[in-house]
Write a structure and sequence with these properties.
The protein is of the alpha+beta class and about 400 residues long. It is built from 14 helices and 13 strands. Strand 7 and strand 8 form a beta hairpin. Helix 5 packs across helix 6 and helix 8 packs across helix 11.
């Protein structure tokens, strides 16, 4: 060994090892194609006392890489993808050694440019373009269905259907299927520092919802992605929950007269939250959305037409509508907000499988007239055949 190598060896022996689990999106979706790998890092005594966010600010999580050919993100001879730490949180699962969950973005091998599937970088470009100090707040309502691995919702018979919808919403007792897993998820998110603000059983048996927020700007996507990651990690727990379970984020997991799953998005800016003129700012933002249907719906979920039928507390995807206290419209302004004259509005269109980075960036851009060239360049990629009449929908609302 060289003298420098020996010095480094003794330096490592004299410091505190931690585990850093890097977590990233590999592009197929933002709910199941969440990858991770762990490494050992060494901190001195002073650094060991710092929070994950403070360690991130000090640059203690070095750039790393992985094989992009194994995640379908790279082809050819050079398949390396770089990952750069962008957020850090206490790890809610590993207990014997201090462990930190490190959210990372994907970059090209030389680290110069984000990969084409790095939607967080696209969202950052929108939030960074804000010149009005808008302080955008988001609250996301994530609906989902707990299922057996073959796709049957929890609590459903192997053949046929359960009792019709009615007794399941906010239920307790034997029809609240999967509550042990739901509460375990809730607790792990809180331990991690995720801004999860509540949970409840939903309308369809086996269907649940949790809420994330309020979060500011890019934090909205970070916390939603990591909350989905927590569910994936929970489902690895063989002893507690069994091997045959999954969490389904499809917008219409069961066809027919059953509720779909949404990602209702509550949104406000500093101007909307101002008691002096807040309602005027809300109305102005909602009216802007009337003219951007074709820009926004592509980021609401790939099969969202199956959910937005005008039934089951939804609007039609091809018509933009809004009202006070309404749940069959595209946008709802709460009765409490209308009474106070300031606050937020709820976009009820997004589907449960939406990319939270693109969704939040699109809503901010469209409602607040923020330039978003990188975001809008992705519209062809996310456009589906059923979206063909969306430009006409925007024109009808003008």
């Amino acid at each position: 060994y060289s003298f420098c190598t020996l010095l480094r060896f003794f330096d490592i022996m004299a410091t505190n090892p931690i585990i850093a689990e890097y977590i990233w999106l590999s592009g197929a979706d933002t709910h199941h194609d969440i990858r991770s790998k762990a490494r050992t890092l060494y901190l001195n005594d002073e650094e060991f006392q710092l929070s994950p966010a403070e360690l991130l600010a000090k640059g203690k999580f070095p750039e790393w890489n992985f094989d992009g050919s194994s995640t379908n993100q790279a082809k050819g001879l050079n398949t390396e993808i770089a990952i750069k730490a962008v957020a850090a949180y206490p790890h809610p699962f590993e207990k014997n050694v201090r462990t930190i969950a490190v959210l990372a973005e994907c970059y090209l091998a030389d680290g110069s440019e984000p990969t084409a599937d790095n939607t967080r970088a696209v969202a950052r470009s929108v939030f960074d373009a804000d010149t009005e100090n808008s302080e955008p707040w988001f609250g996301l309502e994530q609906e989902y269905v707990l299922t057996h691995k073959e796709g049957r919702p929890l609590g459903w018979p192997e053949r046929g259907f359960p009792y019709a919808q009615g007794p399941y919403y906010c239920s307790n007792g034997p029809v609240a299927y999967g509550r042990n897993l739901v509460i375990a998820h809730y607790e792990k998110c809180l331990q991690m520092g995720i801004k999860i603000s509540g949970t409840n059983a939903e309308v369809m048996p086996g269907q649940w919802e949790y809420q994330v927020g309020p979060c500011t700007g890019i934090e909205c996507g970070d916390h939603m992605v990591l909350s989905r990651w927590v569910y994936l990690r929970l489902l690895e727990d063989i002893g507690t929950f069994g091997l045959d379970m999954d969490v389904n984020f499809e917008v219409k997991p069961v066809k027919g007269d059953w509720n779909g799953s949404g990602l209702h998005t509550n949104f406000s800016t500093r101007q909307m939250r101002d008691p002096n003129g807040g309602m005027a700012a809300i109305t102005e933002a909602v009216k802007r959305l009337e003219n951007t249907v074709h820009l926004d719906v592509p980021f609401h979920g790939q099969n969202n037409n199956e959910r937005l039928t005008g039934l089951h507390e939804t609007s039609s995807y091809s018509d933009f509508t809004w009202g006070v206290g309404t749940r069959h419209t595209s946008v709802r302004i709460g009765n409490d907000v209308a009474a106070k004259g300031y606050g937020y509005f709820e976009d009820r269109r997004p589907g449960s499988d939406a990319d939270p980075y693109l969704l939040s960036a699109s809503l901010f851009s469209s409602s607040c007239a923020i330039p978003a060239p990188k975001l809008h360049a992705l519209i062809p990629k996310y456009t589906r055949a059923w979206m063909g009449d969306l430009k006409n929908a925007s024109k009808k609302a003008e």
